[in-house]
Every structure is written in C-alpha cells, then in structure tokens.
Amino acid sequence: MTVLALEFSSARRSVALARGGRLLAEAVEHTGGRGTDVFGLIEKVLENGNASREEIEVIAVGLGPGSYAGIRAAIAVAQGWQLARGAKLLGVSSMESLAAQAQMERFLGRVNLAVDAQRGEFYLAAWEISGESRVEVSALKIVPAAEIAARQAAGEMCLGPELKPQLFPSAAAVAALAAGRTDFVPGEKLEPVYLRQTSFVKASAARLA
After folding, report:
1. Which of 23, 118, 158, 168 could serve as 12's disulfide partner, Cβ 3.0–4.6 Å?
2. How many Cα atoms within 13 Å fall on the side-chain side of residue 136?
3. pTM, to two decimals
4. Over the stretch 60-83, which tens digit does the pLDDT of each residue have?
5. What is the largest CA-CA distance in the chain?
6. Which residues contact 197 (CB under 8 A, 6 or more apart)?
7. Which is more confident, 37 or 42?
8. Per residue in 111-132, is it b (16+ CB within 10 Å) or e — as a string?
9. What average pLDDT does this structure show over 134-150?
10. Kind and range of the H or E element at 145?
11. DSSP states of 40-88 as a string?
C-alpha cells in the first residue's frame, strides 16, 4: 500500500510518502505564520520517493488537534485527491502522531502531550511510552495554560509544538500509523479534532427605516 501522509496541525507542516510501511521520503516546511506550499511539498516527496501520483493508494491526514486552518487545508487536499483519483482516505490523531514521535526520540515514561488551543488554553493528553508500546492513560481534554506551567514546575515531562522540549507531529509518523489500517472513510467524514462546542450568534432582525 502506497501512502501519502499530510500533517499540517502545527507550524511545522510535513508531507511523507511510504510504501508497505517503509518511509520513502518526507518534506518539511516551517511556516512561520505564512501559507504552505502544499503541492510543492507533495511534488518533492513524489520526486524523492521516485513515485507518481497514480501510484498513491491512500491519503492519510493528521486531524489534530492543532491549527484548524492547517488541518482544513490538508483535508481539502485529501478530499480533492479522492474525487480526482479515487484514493482511499484515513484520518490519524495528531496526538497519536506526537506520541509516536516522542517514542522515536526516546522520550519515555509518562509524557504529557500538549498543543496550543488558543484563548490561553492547551489540548492535553497523557501517554505512557516505552520502547515497545504507547498507551494513552489520560484522554484528550482542554486545560488552562497555567496547568501546563504547573505540571512543568512539578517536574512532569510536557512536550508539544509550543513547549520546551519542543516536539512536532510528523507526516512520517502519520504514514507509519496508517500502515495496515483499513478503516477508510469518505472525504466528507474527515473532520478536525476540535473539543470546543461550536457556537453561533443569531443576527438581530433588520430594522425598518
């Protein structure tokens, strides 16, 4: 199975190409608040991985939590690819990608993974990570930024794109997590991980002059 993976949930945007669970190429761009050259990254991994667009069987997308705009952009690319070429789609938790990245970089033990949720808050999940396994031990939730600071002050390991040590989810990890999965979804079923309830403000009735 040839997989093209997109991970745009942080300021470090990445695209990876894998076949049979083996990474062929990865391209990374640090946006610094700018837009992402999505198709430039895709062309780079296809060229470096010696593959064509026609060979892509699965598009795997990091669904966050994280940058809502970035995740939406990745989903839009995946949806368009499915419409144009019939590729299968998979959604992958960016927190699970972070946990896999932590394992690869040998951050072991109980690890708090935190991602900026804006409004002075963070998405937080705790994982128990060893050289052989990764287990989520505290489900994803939104907490005040002060809680992250308190955990760090207490000596707990806290990792994430906006923290030190700094850790980013990666398309390479998304591709590895997608290997062997068969729970494919139609494009309209791909949705960003977003724990807040969406609220709408009803406009007041128009007043006659």
Report:
1. 168
2. 15
3. 0.90
4. 999 999 998 999 999 999 999 999
5. 71
6. none
7. 42
8. bbbbbbbeeebbbbbbbebeee
9. 97
10. helix 145-153
11. HHHHHHHHHTT--GGG--EEEEE--SS-HHHHHHHHHHHHHHHHHH--E
